[in-house]
Amino acid sequence: MLIPASGYGYVGTIIISTRLVSVRLWLNLAYSSTPLEERSARRYRAGMTNTRSTQRKRAATRVNRGRSASAESSEKVLLGNALRRELVKLLDRRANSEGRNETAIPELRLYRYSQPTESANILMEPAVYVVVQGRKQVTVGDETYFYDQSQYLAVSVDLPAVGRVFEASPEEPYLCMTLTVDPRDLAALIVETGRQAPRDDHDGRALYVSGLRAPLLDGFLRLVRLLDAPQDISVLAPLILRELHYRLLQSEQFGRLAQMAIGDGRLRRVSGAIAWIKDHFAEPLQIEALAKQVNMSPSALHHYFKAVAAMSPVQYQKQLRLQEARRLLLSEATSAEAVAYQVGYASASQFNREYVRLFGQPPRRDAERLRAAASGGSRS
Predict the structure, then answer these.
(1) Under CATH, which number does the domain 266-379 receive?
(2) pTM
(3) Cβ contacts of residue 115 below 8 Å, gap of 6+?
């Protein structure tokens, strides 16, 4: 119902749904509702003020948390840099000869190169490789890995690879330390901590690069310091080695290390195949027989072997044969043909072709070049 209304200088229309309401009553209702509206407005303004205050507090909390996290991250960076500087000083003094340096701690080896090296075919042993100065690259199969002082490289099985130090100088030599990891120590720690290893949480590759955190770097530093206190090595080295194994298990590579330690799944079988090939590389390789020995089908062995080692079993055997042939040519005054038969080749011409494909030169010429390089390096 529409009702015209006038009074007190107001003219308009009052809309009433079902009942007739007098103008005076309506105006009284309108005026009486004004305090209610003002109280509602005050409550709304107070609520908005509280909301804005809460939002400001939350924003300030987020900023403070961000500043705290940033400060914590900066402290970790500073700590890591301080640890590396001390390790550089210790390794510079301890690794006093080019190449590999053994230490009084059998699990620990030190390396030094005062200039970049040529690409060289190597057999990487199961270990953790930590660079404290310089940079290196390693190629396994078709995959190339780079690592420096911010990362460590780990290898879980013997792998033929091509390595090259590409950042080194006499003033700032390439300095690296390697730690042999004991699967039994890893297994004992996994059992002790009760942590369950996730299944298939990685690509199966036997070589990987991970970030180097301060706690792990600190453990390495204390292990290297022990070399200056030989009387303490027998007591303290096992404790620090256990700590380093524990730190490694705290990384994102726990699944790989657990599989390496417990020997479960494909890595155990592939490791068994690798061990057999290493011991019998000069013998003919029968994939069916090898697969049966490690309890796998030939197709599964080929698939998982390539996933772990980045090459097939036949390629792995070929790499071992050629690297052993190169070693024999350098250390013995014997013919290339005799070496070919010694490492398992039935054809000298096939040996020459594959040797050139891997090392870039025929066997005898390559050996002469390496001897000349070594002689020149020793004179200098």
Answers:
(1) 1.10.10.60
(2) 0.70
(3) 168, 169, 170
Rounded Cα distance, 113 and 146, in Å: 17
Assign 210 to helix, strand or coil: strand
- Residue 115 corresponds to which tokens in the numbers above? 């200039």
Q: Which residue has the tokens 């040996």?
A: 351
Domain spans of the chain?
A: 2-63, 99-262, 266-379
150 residue type, one letter: S
The first and second tokens of residue 164, run together, are: 């090259």
The residue with tokens 């310091």 is 225
Rounded CA-CA distance 127/97 in Å is 21
DSSP for 58-88, written as a single string: HHHHHHHHHHHHHHHHHHHHHHHHHHHHHHH
Please, where are the H alpha helices in the chain? 23-94, 183-193, 214-225, 233-249, 254-262, 266-279, 287-293, 298-309, 313-331, 336-342, 348-359, 363-379
Phi-psi region of 310 (alpha: psi -120 to 50; beta: other; left: phi over 0): left
The span from the CA of 195 to the CA of 189, in Å, is 9
How do residues 82-126 score in pLDDT, each as one tens digit?
A: 999 999 999 999 999 999 999 999 999 999 999 999 888 888 888
Neighbours of 276 (CB within 10 A): 17
Topology of the domain covering 99-262: Jelly Rolls (2.60.120)
